[in-house]
């Protein structure tokens, strides 16, 4: 009797992969923002209004920047493949560029952790673009 102890595996749908990647990038965004609260004088600047998000419009803009990836978790699953593929390529590319730009502006030694997060986030969003670009095709012979 031959008995193998091989672990079961199954093919994960690209929609699930994309949603999981957007979820991962959102966790990175949240944790990076949380850890930034530990940077010396950060809380004092926030409380005094000297922080980066010191106007209602800046706060709204930052909120909107984070709303898109949050929605992409859901939209990656429920939208038709053609539309899901397109918006994943568009937003994945935009967020990759945004995170690389942000990473290039970190110089404070206290923000080394943020640089690490930005690099990881840009890798994740690049993978999103790659999965969306390589979306599997269903070929069907039409007679």
Verbal overview:
It is built from five helices and no strands. The protein is elongated, with a radius of gyration of 20 Å. With 143 residues, it is mainly alpha-helical. The protein has helices spanning 14-36, 42-48, 56-78, 81-104, 112-133.
Mean pLDDT: 91
N-to-C series of helices and strands:
HHHHH
Number of strands: 0
Class by SSE composition = mainly alpha
Q: In this structure, how is the largest beta sheet organized?
A: none
Low-confidence stretches: none
Cα(first) to Cα(last) distance is 48 Å
Labels describing this entry:
143 residues, 5 helices, single chain, mainly alpha
Write the layout of secondary structure elements.
Elements (H helix, E strand, L loop, with lengths): L13 H23 L5 H7 L7 H23 L2 H24 L7 H22 L10
Helix pairs in contact: 1-3, 1-5, 3-4, 4-5
Short description:
This protein has 143 residues and is an all-alpha fold.
């Amino acid at each position: 009797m031959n008995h193998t102890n091989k672990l079961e595996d199954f093919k994960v749908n690209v929609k699930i992969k994309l949603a999981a990647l957007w979820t991962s990038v959102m966790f990175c965004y949240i944790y990076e923002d949380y850890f930034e609260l530990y940077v010396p004088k950060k809380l004092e600047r926030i409380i005094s209004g000297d922080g980066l998000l010191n106007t209602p419009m800046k706060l709204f803009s930052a909120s909107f920047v984070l709303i898109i990836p949050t929605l992409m978790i859901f939209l990656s699953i429920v939208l038709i493949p053609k539309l899901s593929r397109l918006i994943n390529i568009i937003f994945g590319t935009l967020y990759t560029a945004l995170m690389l730009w942000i990473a290039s502006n970190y110089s404070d030694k206290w923000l080394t952790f943020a640089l690490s997060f930005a690099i990881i986030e840009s890798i994740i969003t690049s993978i999103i673009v790659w999965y969306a670009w390589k979306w599997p095709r269903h070929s069907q012979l039409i007679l």
